[in-house]
Design brief:
By secondary structure, the chain is of the alpha+beta class. The chain has six helices and eleven strands. It has a five-stranded antiparallel beta sheet, covered by helices on one side. The protein has a four-stranded antiparallel beta sheet with strand order 1-2-6-5, covered by helices on one side. The model is unreliable at 136-143 (pLDDT under 50).
Length: 213
């Protein structure tokens, strides 16, 4: 079973994570309307797409749902507002029937440190460094220092970008800060002046951030 979890994170918001399997049985999708499109994808994209649908079906119990995309790239599915993310080995889906939602997942890797200057604003770097210090004090010595905080800021920015996908925000248009509530970050859309709570979780395999508004 590749389902890792499905959580009710609010009265109308569900979040799930699925671990991609090495050998997927694509014939299980043969009777579904997107099967021909699925089989026309590259192996990696096919595996990602099949995993997303497997998670979506597990979260909704409806095997007739088909995911489409708006011109901005934002996904949609009948009856729900949906956010989708995938990374090496994992996919995540967030669903709601009433509020806009977004999610981002990224496997633990050090390459994010090489591109940090591209997406971190100068006024975010002190926050990221302080965040790193706090995480080190809590004991994650098995992971390269700064990786988790930097990935959190990366995923948080991706989450805000997706939440405001119609606005085509740049990384400099998004400012990430610690939220006043514990266990969360605050994402500021500097174009509209709006602020959104970004919840997060991480383990030795991945960092996950999600938001709703």
């Amino acid at each position: 079973m590749a389902l890792l979890f499905i959580n009710e994170i609010d009265k109308d918001v569900r979040l799930g994570v699925w671990e991609m399997e090495e050998n997927l049985n694509y014939e299980q999708f043969a009777s579904l309307p997107f099967y021909d499109r699925l089989m026309g994808l590259s192996e990696n994209r096919r595996k990602e797409t099949a995993s997303v649908y497997s998670l979506l079906f597990a979260m909704t119990g409806n095997r007739n749902l088909v995911i489409g995309h708006e011109p901005s790239g934002k996904p949609y599915v009948e009856g729900y507002k949906i956010g989708i993310s995938h990374t090496k080995g994992f996919v995540s889906v967030i669903l709601s029937t009433s509020c806009d939602v977004a999610v981002d997942i990224e496997y633990i890797n050090t390459r994010v440190l090489r591109i940090a200057d591209r997406f971190l604003r100068e006024d975010e770097k002190p926050n990221a460094l302080q965040f790193a210090k706090e995480k080190d004090e809590k004991g994650h010595q098995d992971i390269v220092p700064d990786v988790i905080p930097t990935l959190l800021f990366w995923c948080a920015k991706e989450t805000i970008y997706k939440l405001y996908s119609d606005e085509r925000l740049t990384f400099q248009n998004i400012k990430i800060m610690d939220a006043e509530q514990g266990g969360a970050l605050c994402g500021n859309n500097l174009i509209t002046g709006e602020s959104v709570r970004i919840d997060y979780t991480f383990n030795e395999d991945y960092v996950l951030t999600y938001a709703r508004k």
